[in-house]
Amino acid sequence: MIGNGLPAAPAPAVTGLLLTGGGARAAYQVGVLEAIAALRREAGAGAAGNPFPIITGTSAGAINAAALACRADDFDGAVAHMVEVWGALHAHDVYRTDTYAMLDAAARWRLILGIGQLLARWLRLKPRSLLDNAPLGELLQQLVHFERLPGLMRDGHLDALAVTASSYSSGEHVTFFESRRPMQPWTRSQRVAVADRITHAHLLASSAIPFVFPAAGLPMRGHTEYFGDGSMRQTAPTAAAIHLGAERILAIGAGRMHEPFDAGAPTTFSGEPTLAQIAGHAMSSIFLDALAVDVERALRINDTLALIPPEARARTRLRPIELLLIAPSERIDAIAARHTETLPRAVRRLLASGTNPGEGGAPAQSAALASYLLFEPGFTRELMALGRADAMRQREAICGFFGWAGGRSARSAEALRSAP
């Protein structure tokens, strides 16, 4: 009861943010966040503090998550800074694009393709990856200030931050989390959680796209384990936010959840696939499929729980989770096909070396693969614009999800089933 004799209002649901992976595709997430910040101001909720007490991310989404978390006391300022950074990015800010590095990368690519005469050189050099992402490490030092995180948590601006990575050493999918309150780590089949002080090394590990960027070493169980992109073996993207206490989750994807076949699409080809196409398809499987499956699973669990009487439901460990999904309404590889020519020439030659001989490295045939490496302003700005537009199309659902003025109730089934 409160002083006037009325029952106390229920505490607002704890909101979690989930940002998935996808290399340069993660620029889309920044556009969505920019729209959410604008809607929040319109609703007069701008002074309510950080709208996402729990922030989780994977791969490039982990970098965005950390950037938000480390400025949790100024959500609008954090988003504006992310928009500025993503809109000015170039490939050389993320990986080496000088001629020497690209010549070496082209040789590595040919080795991966199995050209026998270079096998001996491969065994001598033992390359760690296709590209050198040392510039990204330098950029993270400037952009993500983890020293602020303990104070932000102490002052109540943030409850938890989690980033995920995949261990090449153990085969496990690992969620590293930092929380305001002591929490017991969780363990599930092939995935574990580790309470840790999150660092730039964790971001490099989480965003180490397989084959493309080198694995990163992290201390684990008293020794060093080597990690790659957290999207690998990620069977339950929403799990970390739920374990950390989120009762509703806003998930921002980096690819369409349902890809209808379109024979006329610029990235649809007949005949035998090129190696560049296969690589792009493999990347999409790693980065996109898990979220779609997890969303469908959450829907089924919510529908099942709705059929159980409340007293019986209270005896289970399951609880309904309100989910709102925002994902691109357009094919990102089709957008990338319009921008591949903006990549440095040496990178274009590298991608062309994965096409069939005699094709001249047709940009469209390497567009899916290029979309993860296209850290160029034309591409990232178009993705941010798409993110803003897609979020504004879901204005009522977003406002309803947060309880802001002008929205409608955004229950999970309605919101998810209407997502692109």
In a few lines, what is going on in this structure?
With 420 residues, this protein is an alpha/beta fold. It is 41% helix and 13% strand.
The oligomeric status of these chains comes to single chain
Number of strands: 10
Rg of Cα set? 22 Å
Low-confidence stretches: 113-120, 260-264, 354-362, 409-420
Percent range of helical residues: 40-55%
Biggest β-sheet description: 10 strands, mixed
Strand residue content: 5-15%
Classify the secondary structure makeup into a structural class: alpha/beta
How would you describe the shape? globular
Q: Helix segment count?
A: 17
Order of helices and strands: EHEHHHHHHEEEEHEEHEHHEHHHHHH
Describe the protein.
The protein is of the alpha/beta class and 420 residues long. Helices cover 41% and strands 13% of the residues. The chain has 17 helices and 10 strands. It has helices spanning 27-42, 60-69, 75-88, 99-112, 119-125, 134-143, 149-154, 200-206, 239-243, 275-306, 310-313, 332-337, 345-352, 367-370, 377-393, 395-402, 412-417, and strands at residues 15-19, 54-58, 160-167, 173-179, 187-188, 191-195, 216-220, 223-229, 248-252, 322-326. Strands 1, 2, 3, 4, 5, 6, 7, 8, 9 and 10 form a 10-stranded mixed β-sheet that branches. A hairpin with a 2-residue loop joins strand 5 (187-188) and strand 6 (191-195). Helix 1 (27-42) packs antiparallel against helix 3 (75-88). The longest helix is centred in the last third of the chain and has 32 residues, at 275-306. The two termini are 44 Å apart. Mean pLDDT is 81; it is low at 113-120, 260-264, 354-362 and 409-420.
